[in-house]
Design goal:
glycogen phosphorylase activity; binds pyridoxal-5'-phosphate; EC 2.4.1.1; Rossmann fold; single chain
Length: 825
């Protein structure tokens, strides 16, 4: 479809959306596409037929969106992310297209339940956690707010691993989400690019002078595009998620094949395809392997070549790239793009260096996601140079210019220059990807107000001095379609009943339920919805784990990646202390609690694996102890993913957001919980700080050290010993864990974990224990007054609208991208 003959959807055979028509469409797919009669169809056949019908409804709108963007010449946003944790797509598409009723009714005619069909869809787990899920929420919000957006990433054959728990320990199993095919994606052979690695660079001379550099890679692989539609609210706009798959240039080496070396002939293709075979399972930690750098360059180069090709086709002139395209780097994983775009502009398209640098830095924006030193990406020079020799030269040239600018114009001294340099000279010589992304972008953002301030003070302190206008804040958000309307139709229904449906289109309007926090009848209905969602989670726990939990208890939930800084250990110690105290004082008026955990540990992260083991060991003993009965249960739900989160978030009374202050960049789990009416117990960290401002001090439960206090204690080489010795509740709990009470089969299993707390307490678990314990007891008291509790819960739902990713996207669009509705084309 070309821009001169826009698709007029009104002239198309209108795709009917009444239940009769939808039923005919589904039977049509079943018959002609799948080759089954309704009475022979199995549940997966219904899933496939339903998905294909919904996809047809998407197609018209997808074409129309593309045409609208092409016609208007609007600026496009390209979101480069190594991860898109999109989860299931069917319910999202059905909801956003308003097809829930007709599809439900159509399937019901054949005795098929839409809910059951939706559960069969594999969870597209192309990400680790928060960063990947943010990219997915942003794709949905770009489509919903009318920002023309392309997502660019990697089509991993194996997404994030599947977790099982065996004898208390994490076991990783491969995730094979593509085995039954993927009806959402379209392979685009016409969008295929060559990606080079290795080789050498030669200087071409003209009239005796060096004129340009030519890179001759030793290896080449192909990047092939696969497109998936990203449907916005009410189907008003459909954007594209374009994921790259690696293939060999010469899939079988014909010479080798003809000589009878059939295995050798396939070696090339195996090697090429390995680039997009697996997602690295490390979150907040750099995976330093060569294959990882290959993945980063592979998808960066493919995406940039595609962006350039599409730009030239539409606008003719590459020099206007920054006027028509904004490229956002989601963390430093695509930071090599800065050097690669320079190479493409200068070496391939013949643009002079200075102008290419202007175009490049005006095109890129960079989002930082972590300050943890172990997560900051840097690559050994020798590896970088061997794999990407021309990009390495370009980085040296950029670096020389930045250093010259800093020294000559800003008078930077040697220490300041060492801090801003793209090359870390002190550490075996490495390329610093954060510095590269920073200097190559016109805007650099943190993901919460606190995190952004800390960025200015820590990792980018000197770069911030050099470019004081570059850093800005864009607090994260979550899409209310998936994280309220789809996962909690009961609450959505209640809110609609109370204030009408306008909040569906403008989430800010949900604040109209705020006064109803004082309306006894409404609060009771709100509590009844919560109760229903807790019953559903209890049923899932019973079915999967054969543990019976009581929906009358506080559902106290911590679900997220397992990491020391997120402090699941603090929560488990509190559970052990509570267990201990209940056993010693069974006569006291304890509020019944179910402590629920879920989350995956990076396979190589020993301490995180130990924490999972401890949670499971504690669960085993506590759940079988008749003395505590229904007063305390501990549950670890295996294989946390987006679909699990959709069931868990609405069922929480209490949301645990207890990271060591200063270390959680934002968090988004905190937002999903609060939006669904959970109260938060948390530290002043990440977006919790802003949640407190919006929700009100009396409706959130904040405890513990602040970020400056944590930094101070770390400077003082704080240890836990004196704190433990002064606090009998903590001491007893640690002793119970250390003594092997929970693991008689391996009594010394947790010695190391506990002795670290005595000697070091790096994550401030001892330092924060007492404040945490006291805050929990305060919550026990509150839970005994359900009206008060649920009234606060209503305030949470009513006041969380600002944390919609629609708001985040509008801010990016206005302040960084200059794109979307309201931007001048
Ligand atoms: C929201 C979400 C996360 C992020 O959770 P945090 O608590 O912010 O770390 C991780 N994984 C999944 C599956 C999610 O849905």
């Amino acid at each position: 479809m070309s821009a001169t003959t826009p698709l007029d959807t009104s002239k198309l055979d209108p795709r009917k959306t009444d239940p009769d028509a939808v039923a005919r469409q589904i039977i049509g797919k079943l018959t002609y596409q799948i080759g089954k009669r309704p009475d022979e169809a199995r549940k997966y056949d219904w899933l496939r037929a339903t998905t294909l019908v919904v996809r047809d409804h998407v197609m018209d709108r997808w074409f129309a969106s593309g045409d609208r963007i092409a016609e208007s010449g609007a600026k496009e946003v390209c979101y480069l992310s190594m991860e898109f944790l999109i989860g299931r797509l069917l319910r999202d598409a059905i909801n956003n297209l308003g097809l829930s009723k007709p599809v439900t009714e159509a399937l019901a005619r054949y005795g098929v339940q839409l809910d059951m069909v939706e559960l069969l869809e594999p969870d597209a787990a192309l990400g680790n956690g928060g960063l990947g899920r943010l990219a997915a929420c942003f794709m949905e919000s770009m489509a919903s707010t009318g920002v023309p957006g392309y997502g660019y990433g990697i089509r991993y054959v194996h997404g994030f691993f599947r977790q099982e728990i065996s004898e208390g320990a994490q076991v990783e199993l491969p995730e094979s989400w593509l085995v039954h095919g993927n009806p959402w994606e379209f392979e685009r052979r016409d969008a295929t690019y060559e990606i080079g690695f290795g080789g050498h660079v030669t200087t071409v001379h003209e009239s005796g002078k060096p004129a340009r550099q030519v890179w001759r890679p030793a290896e080449r692989v192909l990047a092939v595009a696969y497109d998936t539609p990203m449907v916005g609210w009410r189907g008003a706009q459909v954007n594209t998620l374009r994921l790259w798959s690696a293939q060999a240039v010469d899939p079988i080496l014909l010479d080798a094949f003809n000589e009878g070396d059939h295995i050798g002939a396939l070696v090339e293709s195996n090697k090429a395809e390995s680039i997009t075979r697996v997602l690295y399972p490390a979150d907040s930690h750099q995976a330093g392997q060569e294959l990882r750098l290959r993945q980063e360059y592979f998808f960066s180069s493919a995406s940039l070549q595609d962006i350039i090709k599409r730009h030239i086709a539409r606008h003719g002139d590459l020099k206007t790239l920054h006027e028509k395209v904004a490229i956002q780097l989601n963390d430093t994983h695509p930071a090599v793009s800065v050097a690669e775009l320079m190479r493409l502009l200068v070496d391939i398209h013949g643009i002079a260096w200075a102008e290419a640098w202007q175009i490049t830095s005006k095109t890129f924006g960079y989002t930082n996601h972590t300050l943890l030193p172990e997560a900051l990406e840097h690559w050994p020079i020798h590896l970088f140079e061997r794999l990407l020799p021309r990009q390495m030269q370009i980085i040296y040239t950029i670096n020389a210019e930045i250093i010259r600018h800093a020294a000559q114009e800003k008078g930077f001294n040697d220490a300041q220059i060492a801090a801003i340099s793209l090359i870390d000279e002190g550490n075996g010589r490495r390329v610093r990807m954060g510095q590269l992304a920073f200097v190559g972008s016109h805007a650099v953002n943190g993901v919460s107000a606190l995190h952004t301030e800390l960025m200015k003070e820590t990792v980018f302190h000197n770069l911030h001095e050099l470019y004081p206008d570059r850093i800005q804040n864009k607090t994260n958000g979550v899409t209310p379609r998936r994280w309220l309307m789809e996962c909690n139709p009961e609450l959505t229904g209640l809110v609609t009943e109370a204030i009408g449906p306008a909040f569906l289109d403008d989430i800010e309007k949900i604040s109209e339920i705020d006064p109803l926090a004082d309306d006894a009848a409404f609060v009771e209905k709100f509590a009844a919805v919560k109760r229903k969602k807790k019953e559903a989670l209890a049923a899932l726990i019973s079915e999967r784990l054969a543990i019976q939990v009581d929906p009358n208890a506080i559902f106290d939930i911590q679900v997220k990646r397992i990491h020391e800084y997120k402090r699941q250990l603090l929560n488990i110690i509190e559970a052990v202390a509570l267990y201990d105290q209940i056993r010693s004082h069974p006569e006291k008026n304890w509020a019944p609690r179910v402590k629920i955990f879920a989350g995956k540990a990076a396979p190589s992260y020993a301490q995180a694996r130990e924490i999972i083991n401890l949670a499971n060991d504690v669960a085993r003993l506590v759940n079988s102890d008749p003395v505590v009965r229904d007063l305390l249960k501990v549950v670890f739900i295996p294989n946390y993913n987006v679909s699990a989160a959709e069931i868990i978030m609405p069922a929480a009374d209490l949301s645990e957001q207890i990271s060591t202050a200063g270390l959680e960049a934002s968090g988004t789990g905190n937002m999903k919980f609060a939006l669904n009416g959970a109260l938060t117990i948390g530290t002043l960290d990440g977006a919790n700080v802003e949640m407190k401002d919006h929700i009100g001090d009396e409706n959130i439960f904040i405890f513990g050290l602040t970020a400056p206090e944590v930094a101070q204690r770390r400077r003082e080489a704080h240890s836990g010993r004196s704190i433990i010795e002064a606090n009998p509740i903590l001491r007893e709990a640690l002793h119970a864990i250390s003594s092997g009470l929970f693991c008689p089969e391996a009594p010394s299993r947790y010695h190391g974990l506990i002795s670290n707390l005595y000697n070091n307490d790096w994550w401030m678990i001892c330092a924060d224990f007492e404040a945490y314990w006291n805050k929990q007891r305060e919550l026990d008291q509150l839970f005994a007054k359900p009206r008060e509790w649920h009234s606060k819960a209503v305030h949470n739902t009513a006041r969380m609208a600002w944390f919609s990713s629609d708001r985040s996207i509008r801010e990016y669009a206005k302040d960084i991208w200059q794109a979307g509705p309201g931007a001048v084309a």
